[in-house]
Each structure stands twice: as structure tokens, then as C-alpha cells.
Amino acid sequence: MTADVEQTLVLIKPDAVARGLVGAVLSRYEAKRLAIVAMELRTIDGEFADRHYAEHVEQPWYPPLREFVTSGPLVALVLAGSRAIEAVRALNGATDGVKAAPGSLRGDFALSNRENIVHASDSPESAAREIALWFPGLTR
Ligand code: CDP
Ligand code: MG
Asked: CA 36, 40, 41, 44 torsion: positive or negative?
């Protein structure tokens, strides 16, 4: 393990699970050589969504986001690899599927600013917080 190895929290969101895209999304991360450290199919309630999206709960667009992320099963996973936080954000693409670059997951699979296939931690601090929230038993 080199010093730049990081872990990041990824969600394959309910839209992707409902559309049968779990395998397609996972294969992109695996092709990038990211390692799956933990993975679980979960359905979350509104209170858990509020904790995950704590920084966004006051946004006007949060209520429909809360509805969306609690609407059905999602796949939560922890990925590890060299500079994994930045690498996964790049693979995911910009938040808005319309603006996301073709070739990115959102660019290829999403046409929405909300139902955009995936989530990934955006910094080492959020990765640590989100991994502790979703996988409290995971040793780092
Ligand atoms: O997921 P990412 O870090 O790229 O974006 P964010 O700005 O942290 O927003 C979190 C999530 O909220 C997005 O991935 C969208 O699913 C949702 N969102 C939304 O529903 N409406 C917006 N105007 C912006 C974001
Ligand atoms: Mg974010």
C-alpha cells in the first residue's frame, strides 16, 4: 500500500438500481482498478438521508432529493485505491447529467440534476464522515 491510497464512500443511487445499472456502474470502478472494501444493498429512511446529506438539508431542492434517495434500494460501497476520492469524482462526472462529460457515469447514464446515478465523497473529511456513517464497523 502506498501513502496516497484513500477510501471513499460511493452510493449507486435508487435510479441506477431500478434501471438495472448496478453491474455497469460497478464494472467502471473495477476497470479503474479501485478495490471494493465494503458493499451492501440498503434502503434508507428520511432521517438517515438527513444525516448523509447534512450539508444540504436547508437547500430548497433537498425535499425532493430526500424523497428520491429513500424511494428504493441503493448500493452503498467503500472503494479504495490511489487518490480514490478524486478518481471516483472524475469517473462520476459533474452533478448535472446534462453537463457531465460523455464518458463519465453521469454523462453516459443521466439526464437529470437529481437522479444522477451515483454519489461519492468529495474530500478526505467527508469520506471519513460518510464511511463512519454507512459502515460503522469498518476498520480503517
Ligand atoms: O453529488 P454531488 O457532490 O456531485 O452534488 P451536490 O451538490 O453535493 O448535491 C448532492 C446531490 O443532490 C446531487 O448528486 C443530486 O442528486 C442532488 N441535487 C439536486 O437534487 N438538485 C440540485 N439542484 C443539486 C443537487
Ligand atoms: Mg456532494
From this structure: negative
